[in-house]
């Protein structure tokens, strides 16, 4: 994938996303323009894989936007990564909204998707609409994501009808951890048929993309080939149209064991720990602040 910086040097403009070299310009988002859901479908048609990352605050949202990440997810993983809960179940709409607003306020091109928290959409299409409308009005999200397959097609249909783009999420759905019997791979063996039926129902209901979490690579490849809309994999192998990771996992900020699907691209925990240690040593030794940090 061409980076923003390379594009910008040629065009003197903020670069578009998903601009593979030699691709027909007509199918690309205009330079500096907001990524829209149809751009993601066009990238699928061209066979261009695209990245998605989570974001929960202004600095990281701006960095990822400038780095050319076309889609940012304000995930309910904020429960873990921001709020320190033990799972994603406890996080509320009230806790999500300020994060969604911070991210949308900070990006100029990325499409921002807001996760609907557990308990805020399952009861009915009306409940889903109420929550999604808050994400759009108060959070200024561009789209929402909800977990579940065909049983939640009515929710997806109601939001789509109201003009709210919806991303689905099937396979391992963390909000159903207790119903699924823990963090386990879904769609093994015959389970692939159920996965395909769920994916097709979401597409039929109007979803613009669907996350596949912790499913066998072969199953994800089959689902991807059956759908017109893009699949976004996390622990779903290389056959998906897009890939997503929680940014703190990808950047090595979280301590402790990571799921198997995580690849670490940096070791921010060590970098920050060393910076904090150096600051502490300077303060204790009297070498900070120096003259250049002080006023006369
Ligand atoms: N930091 C973080 N990263 C995530 O990917 C993430 C969150 N938080 N919070 C919400 C959900 C929960 N997710 C998770 C969390 C843990 C595993 C996990 O422990 N997986 C193990 C077990 C797999 C198995 O037993 O088959 C693994 O090794 O992958 C998987 C998904 C994905 N999401
Ligand atoms: C891991 C992604 C897909 C997610 O749903 C989240 O971050 O909440
Ligand atoms: Mg989530």
Automatic annotation (TrEMBL):
Q: Which domain of life is it from?
A: Bacteria
Q: Which InterPro entries match?
A: Pantoate_hydroxy_MeTrfase, Pyrv/PenolPyrv_kinase-like_dom, Pyrv_kinase-like_dom_sf
Q: What is the first-listed, main subcellular location in coarse terms?
A: cytoplasm
List positions binding 3-methyl-2-oxobutanoate.
Answer: 76-77, 115, 145
Q: Name one Pfam family in it.
A: Pantoate_transf
* Residue segments, region Disordered: 1-33
The molecule here is called: 3-methyl-2-oxobutanoate hydroxymethyltransferase
- Give the source species: Actinoalloteichus hymeniacidonis
């Amino acid at each position: 994938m061409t980076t923003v910086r390379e594009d910008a040097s040629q065009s003197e403009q903020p670069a578009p996303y998903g601009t593979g070299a030699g691709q027909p310009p007509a199918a690309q988002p205009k330079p500096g323009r907001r990524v829209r859901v149809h751009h993601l479908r066009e990238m699928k048609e061209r066979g261009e894989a695209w990245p998605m990352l989570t974001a929960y605050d202004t600095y990281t949202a701006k960095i990822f936007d400038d780095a050319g990440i076309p889609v940012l997810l304000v995930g309910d993983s904020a429960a873990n990564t921001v709020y320190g809960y033990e799972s994603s179940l406890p996080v509320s709409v009230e806790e999500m909204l300020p994060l969604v607003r911070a991210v949308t306020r900070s990006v100029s091109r990325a499409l921002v998707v807001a996760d609907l928290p557990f308990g805020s959409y399952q009861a009915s299409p009306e409940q889903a609409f109420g929550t999604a409308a808050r994400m759009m009005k108060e959070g200024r999200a561009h789209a929402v994501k909800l977990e579940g397959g065909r049983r939640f097609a009515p929710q997806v249909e109601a939001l789509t009808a109201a003009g709210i783009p919806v991303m689905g999420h099937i396979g391992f759905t963390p909000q159903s951890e207790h119903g699924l019997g823990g963090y386990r791979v879904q769609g093994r063996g015959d389970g692939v048929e159920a996965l395909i039926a769920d994916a097709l129902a979401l597409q039929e209901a109007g979803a613009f993309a669907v996350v596949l979490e912790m499913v066998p690579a072969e199953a994800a490849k089959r689902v991807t080939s059956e759908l017109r809309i893009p699949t976004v994999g996390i622990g779903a192998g290389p056959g998906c149209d897009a890939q997503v990771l929680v940014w703190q996992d990808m950047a090595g900020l979280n301590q402790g064991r990571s799921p198997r699907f995580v690849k670490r691209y940096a070791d921010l925990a060590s970098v920050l720990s060393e910076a904090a240690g150096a600051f502490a040593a300077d303060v204790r030794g009297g070498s900070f602040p120096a003259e250049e940090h002080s006023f006369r």
